[in-house]
Amino acid sequence: MDNDDTETYILLLLADSNLPTGSFVASSGLESYMKHGFASSAPSIDVAIVDFVRDSLASYARSSLPFVSDAHRAVMDYALCKGATDNVVPHAHSTLSTLAKLDELYQTMVLNHVARRASMTQGVAMLTLYSKGFSQSASLSVFSTPEARDHEARMRELIDHLKLKIRREETYGHLPICWGALTAALRISIERSRYLHLFLHARSLLSASVRLNELGPYGAQQVLLHAVRPLVEAEVARCQNLRTGFLDSLECFDDVTLGPANTWPLGEILAGRHDLQHSRIFNS
Questions:
Q1: Are residues 92 and 60 in contact, defined by beta-carbon separation less than 8 angstroms?
Q2: Which Gene3D superfamilies match (predicted)?
Q3: Which range has highest mean pLDDT (103-117, 126-140, 237-251)?
Q4: SS3 label, residue 73
């Protein structure tokens, strides 16, 4: 199996809706959007859902993909660090420090406590997914090459240290940072990492619409097939060059045009009002 086939296989595993990633408890503001009556002006409920997905994707892509990209780059740089052990250990600490700085910046970029709570819950779930679902057990190591086992050991140690920092409350463990680290540890390309991250965000919104009984499973699948793909592709293309600035020269980095931003104030307000609803299905 060549590298492309291996990457595709891992992408299929990551796209499995049965993975315990925690996204089923978060509606990303959709429940609040529906409860506040913003869908009533649309000609049909599926159009209203597509409108929400479009606005949510645009804002989430601009705010999260720079962090996904930089976290991915940081972990990939560590993965490619070869040589003596005394060079690897400082590089691991530097990588963890970079991830913590990205985490801190993302914490300030998320403007409401509900979205922060959901992001941290899902981020930790991603790291747990790597440790328990994607890292290789000792009994299965016989199926790997020595190079693959070495990469696996180093990535598992890095992820375990990141989880420890989160448990000690030394960093937050937000989803975009953890997703970038996870996909880099699995050797997923940065392009496919960004694309799958946005696709899963859109799919989780449609899953939420089904759980809210706004769309049926078949209707949600139609929306996912016919309406979501161009939206995801457009946002990935628009945000592919965005960065946080941590891994770039600050002299040539324009944070206004190249940096992360929140672009949908209404979405932030609606998400922030989630806990004020009289009854709720989702935690966020």
A1: no
A2: Urease accessory protein UreF
A3: 103-117
A4: helix
Could you tell me the end-to-end alpha-carbon distance of the chain, in angstroms, rounded to an integer?
41
Q: Among 61, 57, 59, which residue's Cα sits nearest to residue 224?
A: 57
Best CA proximity match to 72, nearest among 284, 225, 246, 216: 246
Look at 29-38, 192-201, 242-251 and tell me which has the smallest mean pLDDT: 242-251
Q: Which residues contact 122 (CB under 8 A, 6 or more apart)?
A: 21, 22, 23, 26, 175, 178
Residue 134: burial class (beta carbons within 10 Å; 0-12, 13-18, 19+): middle
Please give the distance of CA 173 from its chain centroid, rounded to a whole number. Answer: 11
pTM over 0.90: yes
Residue 41 burial (CB count, 10 A): 9
Q: In angstroms, rounded to a whole number, what is the distance separating the alpha carbons of residues 40 and 58?
A: 22
Of 211 and 4, the one with more pLDDT: 211
- Chain length of the chain: 284
The DSSP line for 104-171 is: HHHHHH--SHHHHHHHHHHHHHHHHHIIIIISPPGGGGGGS-HHHHHHHHHHHHHHHHHHHHHHTTSS
Reported as a single tens digit per residue, the pLDDT across 133-161 is: 888 776 677 667 778 778 888 999 999 99
